[in-house]
Design goal:
The structure holds 2 protein chains of 2 kinds.
Chain A: H1 6-29, H2 38-55, H3 60-82, H4 87-107, E1 117-118, H5 123-134, H6 136-139, H7 144-172, H8 174-184, H9 186-191, H10 196-222, E2 224-225, H11 232-245, H12 251-266, H13 274-288, H14 296-306
Antiparallel strand pairs in A: 1-2
Chain B: H1 2-30, H2 37-53, H3 59-86, H4 94-114, E1 129-131, E2 136-138, H5 139-161, H6 163-173, H7 175-180, H8 185-211, H9 218-233, H10 238-257, H11 264-278
Antiparallel strand pairs in B: 1-2
Helix pairs in contact in B: 1-5, 1-6, 1-8, 1-9, 1-10, 2-3, 2-4, 2-8, 2-9, 3-4, 3-8, 5-6, 5-8, 6-8, 9-10, 9-11, 10-11
Classes of the chains: A mainly alpha, B mainly alpha.
């Protein structure tokens, strides 16, 4: 099968990981906080999982989960002072946090400094072995590498669906309504009895957990990480997924990650101008469509279209 | 040793202060953080370098040229990424994102134009050392420190004594009221962004002179340091930015001299993270003043 070549599967893998990253910043944005620290949380998850699985030989699933938990714990620690900060202060403080994490990773021995960690246990090889041992790969006449990568794609898709479902359920719950209230008007929400600090912390921590998870998945999909992977440019990439796709609807960051991961592959012939294009794109988006491609109105339209004109459930919330 | 480090720190800090003033001026009138400032700084360094190497200009003429170039970039920045947003009702994070876009764009342009390699000013500028008994100071450091202090004094005069300065201060106080009082606030905003960018470009030349390393990616790192100083001094506080710049410069040099040299780039942000626990409004602002947006 032509469509299952490793190159395509690799791109799909990155799209899925980036979509999870996009959701991580979306979750913090859903309380109106702009955190630029998600690349930092991502690197925490990636390094934690890589070190745990390599040095201690722990199972991959445990490492990945712990990566997320560690990022959440650190978010709890730095969240208390930073979530009291508003708007620009939070953005700069979290940007600073990411930068501090990067410099620390550059200097520690356990992270192997600027050289980074290579030979991280690979998810696709592990999954490939599972496929082989069950005989599923043979039944589908796939070779080992493709079977493994396909398994990875399926796994990432499942995780993405889990994260999406979690967030969708959250939005319908009391917590989600509190988030929305804070995003609309923090003071009004506080007057209505919403515990603003608590909910802002909560969204910050959930966002960090998801970013850490994505980082760990990234480490086990690429087998190699170094501090440069989580630099300022990663911050901008993650921000772009949400801003470009749409930061008011959960499908926005997913769409953004899809388009922006695919675009460089399609535009490979103009790789030198990619960053230029991205930069111009950010400015143009802010000027003409500050809410991203998938705005609330557009999402509502699509929803009614998909429901064939029936009044969509939950569509009257806004 | 101590005095030597202090002199080095103050020289470095004076450049940081000039960068941070650029951020703080724009924050003052527009209430936004201009994330493209670091890239204007970087392009300023390149313009200065080109004027010196290709056109054999003297260092001060080159500095002036870089400032003019910076001002032009500032004008373009204001017209493309700031004014269109001001005319619409958008979230206060939108200008932050659009200036990040400009930053990425400029960095990529510089990478394509100049290539990724590191360049340096010709060695004739490195000059000789002036030897005082307990510290040495190079000609470059004298030029760098002197120019930075001169620029800060001129700015202080401009802001405090001239009519332009008065209208900038009025606009910073309240854009709408300033507009009602007959100030052309759009014009004032353009001037401020141009002034801030000219200062950023000048800082670029000064830092490039003392560090001998000009590369397209230097804008990000320096931009970050300027941001750290901005928070340190308090948003929109010009004197705070000056003091904060010197503090960061000295802190960095001492952290290198007494141990943690590889953590140097984390010093600034480490300081502001601690500061934000304790005095979120910055070292030199009273609570509520300039404070949280």
């Amino acid at each position: 099968m032509d469509i299952l070549n490793p190159y395509y599967l690799q791109i799909v893998t990155f799209i899925l990981i980036n979509a999870i990253l996009g959701i991580s910043i979306y979750i913090t944005l859903s309380t109106g906080q702009m955190s630029l620290g998600n690349a930092g949380f991502m690197s925490l998850g990636a390094y934690a999982s890589a070190i745990l699985t390599m040095k201690l030989g722990l199972p991959l699933a445990f490492g990945i989960f712990t990566g997320g938990v560690l990022a959440a714990l650190v978010a709890l620690l730095i969240g208390l002072p930073t979530t009291r900060l508003q708007g620009l202060y939070l953005a700069i403080a979290t940007l600073g946090f990411g930068e501090v994490i990067r410099v620390v990773a550059l200097n520690l021995e356990i992270t192997n400094g600027a050289l980074g960690i290579s030979g991280i246990p690979s998810l696709s090889i592990t999954l490939g072995k599972v496929f082989n041992s069950t005989g599923l790969a043979e039944a589908l006449s796939l070779d080992f590498q493709v079977a493994g990568q396909l398994g990875l794609v399926v796994l990432l898709l499942l995780i993405l669906i889990c994260v999406l479902t979690f967030q969708l359920l959250l939005e319908k719950s009391r917590i989600g309504r509190a988030f929305a209230a804070i995003k609309e008007d923090e003071h009004a929400a506080e007057v209505m009895g919403v515990n603003v600090v608590y909910y802002k912390m909560l969204s910050f921590i959930i966002g960090a957990f998801v970013a850490g998870l994505a980082g760990a998945l990234y480490a086990h999909s690429t087998f190699f990480i170094n501090p440069t992977d989580f630099s300022y440019h990663k911050v901008v990439d993650i921000l772009l997924y949400a801003v470009f796709g749409g930061s008011n609807v959960i499908w926005g960051p997913v769409l953004g990650a899809f388009i922006l991961t695919l675009l460089p592959e399609v535009l490979r012939f103009m790789a030198d101008y990619r960053a230029m294009l991205y930069g111009a794109l950010l400015v143009i988006m802010m000027v003409f469509r500050p809410n991203g491609i998938l705005s609330r109105e557009l999402a509502a339209k699509i929803r009614t279209f998909l429901c064939f004109g029936k009044k969509s459930p939950g569509g009257d919330r806004q | 040793m101590f005095f030597q480090q202090l002199v080095n720190g103050l020289t470095l800090g004076s450049s940081y202060a000039v960068i941070a003033i650029g951020y703080t001026l724009i924050f003052g009138v527009l209430n936004i953080i201009n994330m493209a400032h670091g890239e204007i700084f970087m392009l300023g360094a390149f313009i200065g370098l080109l004027l010196v190497t290709k056109f054999q200009f003297g260092i001060f003429t080159a500095l002036l040229g870089a400032m003019v170039g910076g001002a032009i970039l500032g004008y373009l920045l204001e017209r493309t990424a700031l004014r269109p947003l001001r005319q619409k009702k958008v979230s206060h994070l939108a200008p932050l994102i659009s200036t990040i876009g400009v930053a990425i764009f400029l960095e990529s342009v510089a990478l394509n134009l100049f290539g990724p390699q590191t360049r340096a000013f010709p060695s004739e500028f490195s000059g000789h050392l002036l030897d005082f008994s307990f510290f040495k100071i190079s000609m470059i450091q004298v030029i760098s420190l002197g120019t930075a202090v001169f620029l800060m004094l001129v700015l202080q005069l401009l802001i405090e004594k001239t009519k332009v300065g008065k209208s900038i201060r009025a606009t910073a106080e309240n854009v709408e009221t300033a507009g009602l009082l007959g100030i052309n606030t759009n014009k004032v905003i353009v001037w401020t962004v141009m002034l801030a960018s000219a200062l950023g470009a000048a800082a670029g030349v000064l830092v490039a002179l003392s560090f001998d390393a000009i590369e397209p990616t230097m804008g990000v790192m320096m931009g970050f340091k300027g941001l750290a100083v901005l928070i340190l001094g308090g948003l929109g506080n010009i004197k705070g930015a000056m003091a904060g710049g010197f503090i960061l410069g000295v802190a960095e040099v001492f952290s290198v001299a007494y141990g943690a040299s590889s953590y140097r780039d984390a010093v600034g942000f480490g300081m502001i993270i601690i500061l934000l626990f304790w005095r979120p409004q910055g070292l030199f602002s009273k609570a509520g003043e300039g404070g949280r947006p």
